[in-house]
């Protein structure tokens, strides 16, 4: 194991290389540029290909092309670029094409603030394209080391589920430096819980089975299999067809291969002080969760029965964590409240769900502990002019 | 052209999509046959070619017809998919894309230019039915000025990519394409020869080939769905380079042939990567 | 060692503030500590301040934010004004009097003036080695940091002028307040 003081971008690059990613296409955008730069340096050293695309839409399509040629491929961007992935993301979902997509969140909408972290894409990661009739898998790390682990995991899941898998990070962890351990062999990878699935080649002639089964190899072109894949509703053989029944069959697979196999990744969460049915559960994901953990531990030492639930597997949404009928506080890096809506839906009907939003900066520990106290005492969170404290 | 369509059909095409779902009198089949005949004359095998398609009439009708591997991209994106695929495919595989004019010269033009820039080895056949016909017949970027379409009821009055001396092929030449040609679907064996040259170029080739759409374009512009009328109209407005008349719209022939003159994209990438891998530098 | 040690360095863009934080972090990694080092950049780079926030700990680090820094290295007046009030009573502010003009005497924390720029001019005829001088002091006053590891990190992260950097580091280390 080698240890480095390095950025999350470095960790993602090394994680991708470890699991056999040999193709990266990107388009410069803060704060994902440094990942592209790291890939442009490292991939050729490993015999891999880095391409700078003409735009983000092309970047993900280039990855699709490489994946169709049998390569493990990855792209990375930030919100304004992620929105241009809508087109290829849908293609990759429909054609069951494995690609790993990293989104490093910044402050939006539109260009917003380039150099500050935001979490405005919670729902966008669920619906990265139009049309519905699909499930998505999204993983959200909260440290540089976990950026590596979730990149590794995203590649594993994308091969097994035969679909694009996204990693949602933010500027603080992709640009921030941390101590990072990089495994140097298979044994060390295993020790770190890294799972690897090799690229296999679908032998055809059928394109997809009308089942929820996993581990169907993806279509790889140029292998004399007569493979077909397209953006249209496919028949089971891959021909284009305009029939509702055919579409229903395909949609069944896209939805239920994920829904029915969640056990493969639904262990990806973190619970702190959650064993004794806390009076208040603080829910978050990504970088804010680290401040939440500090605040929750501090509150515990002050006698408050507070626990922290951090989601790593964001989508499909893990409803099972929200069975406790208690108070919830959802902490996010946005002011409109996104994750909180999902918590409100998943939590028992009469539970009390609150929201604390910041954006560009992480919430401070005193602000969090003060909010815990208010909620536990039943005091209302206030709305002071434009400064929204309650949701 | 000296061939029976049934011969090449059974050798190269899937029976599933024959007959096609194209409108009666559609000229796309002529273009398709020209490409297949070129492949046959080059003695290429089914497994030598990966076939890419776009959306619209040209893409939809040709997708899944090739007996070997086939891929269809969304609007305008097949060029980017093809470029990613090109760089990881074995160099001896040919990439042939049959696309439409709206896809290539409208929504996909940026990706097309970058495919030309990088000289990625692929042959793009732009099957031009003079607008967006699968959506009912709206004008496109090569629709002749003055044409009446569903979205130009007063006549197409904008500057376009083939009017007033402008030419989309000039753009692609400037962007670095190494083989560019223009034909109409009536050019037969001559067009077959051109497509063969396009395929033989280890680099970016594009053949722009206009074909008749009786259903939408002709019914609006010529006031008739008679295939013969639009067939003759296109034929009469096409002339080989050097024999142009005042009313010529399509000047046919090879516009630019710099075949095999510039390093091909995937070869350049692989040679570069290999050198960096071995020596750590360029 | 405390559960976590927070170190903030802040100044203008181009002063080497990020590199300073990186060197402290690198030393922490070499010593087997867990490290988080955030750099503030982007919009703040233009005209405002640049900040490195380093957290050192024996255990996994939760919050990477330095809300109450044990050590604050102030390399501009703007940075001093912005972060001085975050330093707790038992914290230390290390500032360069050539760069921080006005000191807030009402603060309860310890404030140490270290004339890095002046010392660099006196010893090397240029201000280039001011940060290495500061790192000498940092290695001395932050108990948990190992002197040799900090110097190793300087030599690793600054590839040039090794002899002068070694000398500057020692001058800083030996400085008495």
Q: Topology of this protein?
A:
The complex is a heterotrimer of chains A (391), B (282) and C (177).
Chain A: E1 2-7, H1 8-18, E2 21-26, H2 33-45, E3 49-52, H3 56-68, E4 72-77, H4 79-82, H5 86-94, E5 99-107, E6 113-117, H6 122-126, E7 137-139, H7 144-161, E8 164-170, H8 171-175, E9 177-182, H9 186-191, E10 228-229, H10 244-259, E11 269-272, E12 280-284, H11 288-301, E13 306-311, E14 313-315, E15 327-332, H12 339-346, E16 352-357, H13 365-376, E17 383-384, E18 387-388
Parallel strand pairs in A: 2-3, 2-4, 4-5, 5-8, 7-8, 12-13, 12-15, 15-16
Antiparallel strand pairs in A: 1-9, 5-6, 7-14, 11-13, 17-18
Helix pairs in contact in A: 1-2, 1-7, 3-5, 11-13
Chain B: H1 5-12, H2 28-41, E1 49-53, H3 56-62, E2 70-72, H4 78-86, E3 94-100, H5 101-107, H6 109-117, E4 122-128, H7 168-175, E5 179-184, H8 188-200, E6 204-210, H9 214-221, H10 227-236, E7 238-240, E8 250-257, H11 265-279
Helix pairs in contact in B: 2-8, 4-6, 6-7
Chain C: E1 4-11, H1 17-30, E2 34-40, E3 50-57, E4 71-74, H2 77-83, E5 92-95, E6 110-113, H3 116-124, H4 130-141, H5 147-157, H6 162-174
Parallel strand pairs in C: 1-4, 4-5, 5-6
Antiparallel strand pairs in C: 1-3, 2-3
Structural commentary:
The complex is a heterotrimer of chains A (391), B (282) and C (177). By secondary structure, chain A is an alpha/beta fold. In chain A, 34% of the residues lie in helices and 23% in strands. Chain A folds into two domains: 2-191, 3-Layer(aba) Sandwich (Rossmann fold), CATH 3.40.50; 271-388, Rossmann fold. In chain A, helix 1 runs parallel beside helix 2 (33-45), helix 1 runs parallel beside helix 7 and helix 3 packs parallel to helix 5 (86-94). The model of chain A has no long low-confidence stretch (mean pLDDT 95). With 282 residues, chain B is α/β, with parallel strands linked by helices. Chain C has helices spanning 17-30, 77-83, 116-124, 130-141, 147-157, 162-174; strands spanning 4-11, 34-40, 50-57, 71-74, 92-95, 110-113. The relative contact order of chain C is 0.17. A six-stranded mixed sheet of chain C has the order 2-3-1-4-5-6, with helices on both faces. In chain C, helix 1 (17-30) crosses helix 5 and helix 4 (130-141) packs antiparallel against helix 5 (147-157). Chains in contact: A-B, A-C. The interface between A and C is medium-sized, with 26 and 25 residues. Strand 9 of chain A pairs antiparallel with strand 2 of chain C.
């Amino acid at each position: 194991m080698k240890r480095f003081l390095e950025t999350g971008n470095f960790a993602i690059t090394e994680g991708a290389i470890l699991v056999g990613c040999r193709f990266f296409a990107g388009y410069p955008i803060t704060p994902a540029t440094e990942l592209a730069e790291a890939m442009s340096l490292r991939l050729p050293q490993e015999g891999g290909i880095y391409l700078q695309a003409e735009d983000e839409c092309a970047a993900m399509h280039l990855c699709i092309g490489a994946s169709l040629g049998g390569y493990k491929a990855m792209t990375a961007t930030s919100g304004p670029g992620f929105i241009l992935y809508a087109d290829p993301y849908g293609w990759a979902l429909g054609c069951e094409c494995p690609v790993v997509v990293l989104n490093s969140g910044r402050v939006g909408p539109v260009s917003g603030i380039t150099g500050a972290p935001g979490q405005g894409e919670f729902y966008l990661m669920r619906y990265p394209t139009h049309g519905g009739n699909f499930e998505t898998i999204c993983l959200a790390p909260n440290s540089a080391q976990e950026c590596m682990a979730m990149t590794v995991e995203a590649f594993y899941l994308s091969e097994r589920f035969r679909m694009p898998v996204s990693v949602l990070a933010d500027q603080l962890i992709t640009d921030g430096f941390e101590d990072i351990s990089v495994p140097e062999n298979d044994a060390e990878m295993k020790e770190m819980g890294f799972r690897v699935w090799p690229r296999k080649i679908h032998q055809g002639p059928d394109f997809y089975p009308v089942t929820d089964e996993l581990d169907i190899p993806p279509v790889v072109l140029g292998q004399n299999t007569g493979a077909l894949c397209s953006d249209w509703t496919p028949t089971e053989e891959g021909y284009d067809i305009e029939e509702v029944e055919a579409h229903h069959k395909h949609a069944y697979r896209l939805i239920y291969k994920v829904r029915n196999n969640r056990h493969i990744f639904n262990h990806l969460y973190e619970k702190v002080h959650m064993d004794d049915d806390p009076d208040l559960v603080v829910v978050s994901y990504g970088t804010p969760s680290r401040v939440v953990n500090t605040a929750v531990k501090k509150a515990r030492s002050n006698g408050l029965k507070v626990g922290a639930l951090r989601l790593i597997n964001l989508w499909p949404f893990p409803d099972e964590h929200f069975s406790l009928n208690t108070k919830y506080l959802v902490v996010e890096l946005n002011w409109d409240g996104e994750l909180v809506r999902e918590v409100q839906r998943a939590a028992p009907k009469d539970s009390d769900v609150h929201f604390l939003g910041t954006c560009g900066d992480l919430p401070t520990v005193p602000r969090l502990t003060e909010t815990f106290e208010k909620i536990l005492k039943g005091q209302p969170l206030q709305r002071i002019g434009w400064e929204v404290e309650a949701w | 052209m000296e061939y029976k369509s049934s011969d090449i059909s059974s050798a190269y095409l899937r029976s599933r999509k024959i007959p096609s779902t194209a409108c009666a009198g559609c000229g796309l089949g002529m273009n398709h046959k020209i490409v297949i005949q070129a492949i046959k004359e080059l003695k290429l095998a089914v497994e030598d070619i990966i076939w890419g398609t776009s959306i619209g009439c040209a893409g939809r009708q040709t997708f899944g017809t090739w007996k070997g591997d086939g891929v269809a991209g969304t609007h305008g994106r097949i060029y980017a998919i093809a470029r990613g695929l090109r760089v990881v495919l074995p160099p001896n595989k040919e990439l042939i894309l049959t696309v439409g004019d709206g896809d290539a010269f409208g929504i996909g033009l940026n990706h097309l230019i970058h495919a030309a820039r990088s000289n990625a080895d692929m042959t793009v056949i732009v099957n031009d039915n003079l607008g967006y016909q699968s959506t009912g017949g709206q004008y496109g970027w090569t629709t002749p000025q003055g044409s009446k379409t569903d979205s130009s009821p007063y006549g197409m009055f904008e500057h376009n990519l083939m009017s007033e001396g402008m030419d989309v092929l000039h753009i692609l030449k400037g962007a670095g394409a190494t083989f560019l040609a223009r034909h109409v679907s009536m050019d037969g064996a001559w067009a077959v020869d051109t497509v063969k040259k396009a395929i033989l170029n280890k680099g970016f080739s594009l053949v722009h080939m206009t074909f008749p759409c009786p259903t939408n374009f002709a019914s609006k512009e010529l006031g008739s769905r008679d295939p013969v009328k639009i067939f003759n109209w296109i034929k009469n407005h096409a002339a080989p380079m050097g024999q142009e008349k005042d009313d010529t719209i399509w000047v046919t022939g090879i516009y630019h042939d710099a075949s095999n003159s510039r390093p091909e994209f995937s070869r350049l990438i692989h040679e570069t990567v290999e050198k960096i891998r071995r020596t750590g530098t360029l | 060692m405390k559960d976590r040690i927070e170190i903030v360095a802040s100044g203008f863009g181009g002063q080497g503030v990020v590199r300073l934080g990186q060197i402290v972090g690198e030393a922490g990694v070499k010593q087997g500590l867990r490290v988080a080092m955030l750099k503030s950049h982007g919009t703040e780079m233009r005209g405002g301040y640049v900040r490195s926030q380093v957290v050192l700990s024996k255990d996994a680090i939760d919050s990477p934010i330095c809300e109450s820094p044990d050590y604050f290295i102030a390399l501009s007046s703007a940075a001093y004004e912005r972060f001085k009030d975050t330093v707790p009573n038992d914290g230390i502010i290390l500032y360069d009097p050539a760069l921080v003009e006005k000191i807030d005497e009402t603060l309860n924390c310890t404030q140490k003036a270290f004339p890095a720029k002046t010392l660099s001019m006196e010893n090397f005829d240029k201000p280039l080695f001011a940060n290495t001088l500061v790192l000498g002091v940092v290695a001395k006053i932050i108990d948990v940091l190992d002197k040799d590891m900090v110097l190793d990190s300087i030599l690793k992260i600054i590839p040039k002028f090794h002899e002068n950097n070694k000398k500057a580091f020692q001058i800083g280390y030996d400085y008495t307040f």
